[in-house]
Design brief:
A hairpin with a 4-residue loop joins strand 1 and strand 2. The two termini are 22 Å apart. With 86 residues, this protein is mainly β. The chain has strands at residues 17-21, 26-31, 34-39, 44-48, 53-61, 66-73, 79-85. The chain contains no helices and seven strands. It has a four-stranded antiparallel beta sheet with strand order 1-2-3-4, with no helix packed on it. Strands 5-6-7 form a three-stranded antiparallel beta sheet, with no helix packed on it.
């Protein structure tokens, strides 16, 4: 796949992390306080917004059907591993 995928508009933000479920055809993007799920055509499937921290690198686990990411809580230097059911 060598073509751009539209991720929507997210204000003055940039992608923090990206991962994909190649079997089901979904791509996940983290934008600091948001997690976006889209198909490979760029259609929004779902999202989680307003995460109270900085969601960074993400990865997809096909065995558990979960997205894992690093999260730094706002106002602290504490980092956590978070997971999202896909």
């Amino acid at each position: 796949m060598n073509y751009p995928i539209f991720t929507g508009t997210h204000g003055n933000c940039h992608i923090q992390g990206i991962c994909a479920d190649l079997k089901k055809g979904y791509i996940y993007y983290s934008f600091a306080g948001d997690l976006i799920k889209a198909d490979f055509e760029g259609n929004l499937i779902g999202s989680i917004d307003g995460i109270q921290g900085h969601l960074g690198c993400i990865t997809y686990d096909p065995d558990r059907n979960r997205v894992y990411g690093s999260l730094e809580l706002k106002g602290s230097s504490n980092f956590y591993l978070v997971s999202f059911d896909c």
